[in-house]
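As a warm-up, study this chain.
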Amino acid sequence: MLPHVRIAVDHEFAPPDAGTYFYHSHVDVNEQVDRGLYGAFIVEPSEAVAMRDGIFALDDWLLDAKGGRLPTSASGPEIAIDNALDVISEDAVEVGSDHGGHMMDDGGMMMGGMGGGGMMDHAIPDEINGRFGNVMTVNGHATGSVQPVLLSPGERFLARFLNASNAMTHELRASDGRPLAIVAVDGVLLDRPFVTDRLVLPPAKRFDVIIEAGDDGAWALEGGKGDRAIRIPVEVKGEQTTAANVPAGTTTSVPDLGGTRPDATFTVSTDRMMNASTWLVNGRAFDMKGENPTAARFPRGTWMKMRFINKSPMAHTMHVHGHFMHVISRNGQSVGVGTSEDTVVVRPMETVDVAMFADNPGDWVVHCHNLEHEEHGLMAKFKVE
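Now compare it with the structure written out below.
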């Protein structure tokens, strides 16, 4: 038997941006992250915010009755929400919907929701499809054992939500219908809060959300149904508290790239439509153990336009390393979202254009954060030089 060896590695770096971030293994990523090899870390702003906060990592586990890990499988109902965009993006593209969230200008709460994307039938095999669990957890605790968030009347609490699931999109609402104010997306502060009645988090998505305690009472943040239910209890009691100020960021000035040709295009497909075995980007599956070509090169310090073309019947949560994206159009329709994101959903048969400021030199990757998709080829390299 080989001896057990423990290796410790120290990493030192200066984090450039405050916010909520996600770290995890990238070796056998679908297996290791699914088994819990991940975490959240918080970069505090230089000026302290007088507001209590907490991290809520949402996850799902595919287990048998004895708690053993089951093989990957998925069915239509399990991925019915897989094509849904996050609340901010969805509000911008659902034309004619009366379920929109709203930006909060003067501290007043305006409630809204969002429309959901539909699911297309497909024949993608389980092993490259995505792992969808039957046990939901918050910070490793299953529904029923999640400790309540204790708030004082009038308190504002900063809840940092992270979707750590391999493939499942999680949705949360307040049980009493109260509005929720998103103040940061993927770690980046918004210039003003986006207020909605529903949080929709695709894999790897992070929302920093202000929860208004209100008066004495108990309620919960809830999502899912039956075995897939998530419930985070909230208890409000004690002495009245003065509400802390809501943090705000600055508006990023994004140039108008709508009419320009893309600097890079990433086309997603499978090796064949039926009985597929790998995912392809620009006709090539990423080799996790070998050499891979650089799909795009960007000059440092310039705004670039990237185009994602999804030629598959599944949604893909495209995640970029080292940078942030601004969605500028979907299927040629202009989107004025204005948020900086590192994770953007591209729905089935959809084309999405994003603007990215290439300010971080080095070799990077863009990949789907459905981890079965990533592990089976849906990733590409780009270089900023």
